[in-house]
Amino acid sequence: MFGFWKTWKALEARGIMGINRRNADYVLKYNKRSLYPIVDDKIITKERATAAGIHVPELYGVISTEKEIDKLDEIIGGRSDFVIKPAQGAGGDGIIVIADRFEGRYRTVSGKIISHEEIEHHVSSILTGLYSLGGHRDRALIEYRVIPDQIFKSISYEGVPDIRIIVLMGYPVMAMLRLPTRQSGGKANLHQGAIGVGVDLATGLTLRGTWLNNIITKHPDTTNAVDGVQLPYWDGFMKLAAGCYELCGLGYIGVDMVLDQEKGPLILELNARPGLNIQIANDCGLTLRTHAVEARLEDLKARGVTETVEERVAFVQEMFGHIPGVEG
Ligand SMILES: Nc1ncnc2c1ncn2[C@@H]1O[C@H](COP(=O)(O)OP(=O)(O)O)[C@@H](O)[C@H]1O
Ligand SMILES: [Mg+2]
User: Fold this and answer.
1) What CATH number labels 58-143?
2) Ligand 1, atom 25: nearest CA belongs to which residue?
């Protein structure tokens, strides 16, 4: 804990963003309240993205009422793998990733065997709001299970790694690769015990890792190095993230993406209050970058111009990318 505090203190001098500043200067300033449902409800996010031609994990079905739980079998159909999640969940809570069937039951990605009744009970808990923001009644969604690209095999343990990019007014400012561990149960959320690894915006090369607030260089389960890994389709991920501004209209978001073995890059979800640990993984404060983007926006405004997704990505890659030491 002391190590973490020391790291945080050192970063303070380098423009680290704390929770108060994030809320006051970014979340409240750039995110219009009326637009929150687009990102706070994963079903609405999916509908928006699909309408805009952006790829997401296929939605198999939605359960909104206790009565509809009877439809579960029909929604799952003959499939042996799928994911159940609360539409308004966060932090990986309430998500069940089913990887297989086993003698009339299901097997989760971390090997737990569960019965159909247990799944029904879980869906019922989702509906009552057990996992939703503010404890409101919620809906359960059943979707395609993402199979991660082979590239992640050596640096990930079970489950699906995701790529988080923070985007300010359509400009990606910081990126992180999140790797599930044995502890995180196949989920890539840091609070579940996943690893966060910084990513160079220009090249898509991974930087150092953080795990449970410690700085690490190796994956604890696979023992392979997590730094110096080249993420594929990097510019594609950057453009996908930048374009989410037009998609949702919120000015300060965290975009979560995954790379499916067959379907390629997919948007998993958008967050209106993205976490701040990304700064530790990148050894860089967010305000250094957000201020640069805000200055850019001022400048463009004075000149009466706006930039396309490609121009925005080129700007941030030039400005924040090619972190010294990344190539070595
Ligand atoms: N369709 C899916 N297939 C496989 N794993 C998934 C899927 N959806 C989510 N996950 C895993 O669970 C994590 C959290 O999912 P996400 O949709 O971002 O919900 P939350 O809002 O709880 O973070 C992801 O980072 C990923 O590791
Ligand atoms: Mg998430």
Assistant:
1) 3.30.1490
2) 188
Closest residue by Cα to residue 207 from 182, 235, 230, 173: 230
Q: How many helices (H) and strands (E) does the chain have?
A: 11, 13
Where along the chain do its domains lie?
A: 2-40+149-320, 58-143
Q: Is 176 in the pocket of ligand 1 (CB under 6 A)?
A: no
Residue pair 147/260 in contact (Cβ under 8 Å)? The answer is yes
Question: Does the C-beta of 256 come closer than 6 Å to ligand 1?
Answer: yes
Q: Which two tokens stand for residue 178?
A: 């999140």
pLDDT by residue, tens only, the chain of 328 residues: 456 666 666 776 778 999 999 999 999 999 999 999 999 999 999 999 999 999 999 999 999 999 999 999 999 999 999 999 999 999 899 999 999 999 999 999 889 999 999 999 999 999 999 999 888 999 999 999 999 999 888 888 888 999 999 999 999 999 999 999 988 888 888 888 999 999 999 999 999 888 987 888 888 888 888 899 999 999 999 999 999 999 999 999 999 999 999 999 999 999 999 999 999 999 899 999 999 999 999 999 999 999 999 999 999 999 999 876 555 4
What would be the CATH architecture of the domain defined by 2-40+149-320? 2-Layer Sandwich (3.30)
Atom of ligand 1 nearest to the CA of 256: 18
Q: Which of 191, 258, 277 to mutate to test the pocket of ligand 1 (most atoms within 8 A of CB)?
A: 258
89 lines ligand 1 (CB under 6 A): yes
State both tokens at 183.
């502890």
- Supply the pTM of this predicted model: 0.92
